[in-house]
Design a protein that fits this description.
Elements (H helix, E strand, L loop, with lengths): L1 H37 L3 H14 L4 H13 L3 H14 L4 H13 L3 H14 L4 H13 L3 H14 L4 H13 L3 H14 L5 H13 L3 H14 L4 H13 L3 H14 L4 H18 L2 H15 L6 H14 L2 H12 L6 H13 L3 H15 L6 H13 L3 H15 L3 H13 L3 H14 L4 H9 L4
Helix pairs in contact: 1-2, 2-3, 3-4, 3-5, 4-5, 5-6, 6-7, 7-8, 7-9, 8-9, 9-10, 9-11, 10-11, 11-12, 12-13, 13-14, 13-15, 14-15, 15-16, 15-17, 16-17, 17-18, 17-19, 18-19, 19-20, 20-21, 21-22, 22-23, 23-24, 24-25
């Protein structure tokens, strides 16, 4: 019995010592990891925390700290694995849930981020930072209205949280609540006057929407002063001046942008745009020549945008050079993103030359890009008429229907629709359309003539 007792005591002692040694080494590794984080030695920190995880696989803190380092280094998949494991080990800890949300935001998984932040808020609803993040995630997930409550709660807890004021301003702007948006964004700028460039950008936009062009320009000028090496800041000032009708000031500002940043195409493009608008408004040939000169400077760059090339095409059209206009517009529609108006202008150029197929194809692409964002009755009618000329009456029926759906059943459109249906072989539809038109206008001459011409069913 004595021998057995001694053996048991020895085993117990060995196990106790091993546990003590393991705990001591775990503490040492955690301390080493913390020191490495403080010294910004991230690789050493990950090594130390990995050793700690090996010593104690069920340590929530070790997984949390290693996941935090991974997140800071942009290793999002590794961070997500560690942080999810931390939430599994201790579901009552809010910090891992918050960081899981941060990773999902970085991965652009807004809905998953919302779930994590909501779970975090359920554990601690007094954390202004997390409430702000919840509002941000809901906004990015397309749930702007649901973002208001957590953002207001965050501001109530921490009135100096400029990010929450900024995000609330964006939400109010998207809801067309411009005075409320302006108030939130002005607060955000006031809280961080030197660093909130995003707030100033949004505030300038809201001032512009309210028609307060002077304040809008002031904000853009402040941004240009804060970031004097960015040509787009000075260009934005010039374009805002042009929108406010201050053409001379816009030309002066954009000419200065071209002088200071001769290698930046956006300066030439904006200057050309302003000169072109002036040429169209005043019929000024000198302004048109200056527009062509500036736009060609921008278009000759390999990084010229589709919008710049489309503006050059419009300028050549105004100058009466259809071939040069088509060349520019063809280049414009070959580069993404394509402004829809480029296809519309291309259709006009090709239609003038009698190339109906090309014109219709360009109009169809324009209609596809625009969708329901703009009135389409006129374009739909043109596509239908081109389809008739191309011998495709069935396609014409579809586009006449779209034009009528949008603008209403005018007698002229109903006549064209009935004729297209007749040519497509749909005699029943042709009779139906004529009868509908006559029920609204019994004495309409064109409808009555078409009624007499239609073969009986």
């Amino acid at each position: 019995m004595a021998v057995v007792f001694v053996a048991v005591a020895g085993v117990a002692g060995a196990l106790a010592y091993a546990a003590w040694a393991n705990e001591r080494e775990f503490d040492r590794l955690m301390a080493a990891g913390d020191a490495a984080v403080t010294a910004e030695r991230h690789f050493q920190a990950i090594e130390a925390f990995s050793g700690a995880v090996t010593r104690k696989p069920d340590s929530m803190v070790a997984h949390l700290k290693r996941g935090s380092v991974y997140l800071g280094q942009g290793e999002l998949d590794a961070a997500l694995r560690d942080l999810r494991r931390a939430t599994e080990i201790d579901p009552s800890a809010p910090r891992p849930l918050e960081l899981v949300g941060d990773v999902n935001i970085a991965l652009r998984r807004a809905e998953r981020a919302v779930e994590s932040y909501e779970a975090c808020v359920a554990l601690d609803d007094r954390n202004a930072r997390v409430l702000y993040k919840l509002g941000l995630a809901r906004y990015r997930a397309g749930r702007a209205a649901a973002a208001i409550e957590p953002l207001q709660q965050a501001i109530a807890l921490d009135p100096a949280l400029g990010e929450a004021h900024y995000m609330l301003g964006l939400v109010r702007r998207d809801q067309n609540q411009w005075p409320a948006a302006r108030a939130s964004l002005e607060t955000s700028v006031r809280l961080s006057p030197g660093s909130q460039t995003a707030s100033r950008e949004a505030l300038a936009e809201v001032y512009g929407l309210e028609g307060d062009h002077t304040r809008s320009i002031n904000q853009l000028e402040a941004l240009a002063a804060l970031e004097p090496t960015r040509p787009d800041r000075l260009v934005a000032v010039g374009l805002a001046q042009a929108r406010a009708g201050r053409t001379d000031a816009a030309v002066t500002t954009l000419s200065r942008a071209v002088e200071r940043f001769p290698d930046a195409p956006q300066g030439y493009a904006a200057l050309g745009k302003v000169w072109l608008a002036s040429a169209q408004t005043r019929g000024d040939r000198v302004a048109l020549n200056k527009a062509l000169e500036a736009l060609q400077q921008a278009a000759n760059r390999s990084d010229a945008t589709s919008e710049t090339l489309a503006e050059l095409g419009r300028a050549w059209l105004l100058a009466g050079d259809g071939q040069a206009a088509e060349r520019a517009l063809r280049q414009a529609v070959s580069r993404l993103p394509v402004p829809p108006d480029a296809y519309l202008q291309l259709a006009n150029v090709t239609a003038r030359d009698g190339r109906i197929q090309d014109a219709r194809d360009a109009l169809v692409k324009y209609a596809t890009l625009v969708g329901d964002a703009q009135p389409m009755a006129t374009v739909s009618t043109r596509i239908a008429e081109f389809s008739i000329r191309l011998g495709e009456p069935a396609l014409a029926v579809r586009w006449f229907d779209r034009a009528i759906d949008e603008s209403g059943p005018s007698a002229a459109l109903l006549v064209r629709l009935a004729e297209a249906a007749w040519k497509a072989g749909d005699l029943a539809r042709a009779h139906q359309v004529v009868d509908e038109g006559l029920s609204a206008e019994p004495n309409h001459r064109a409808l009555l003539q078409l009624k007499r011409r239609l073969p009986p069913l």
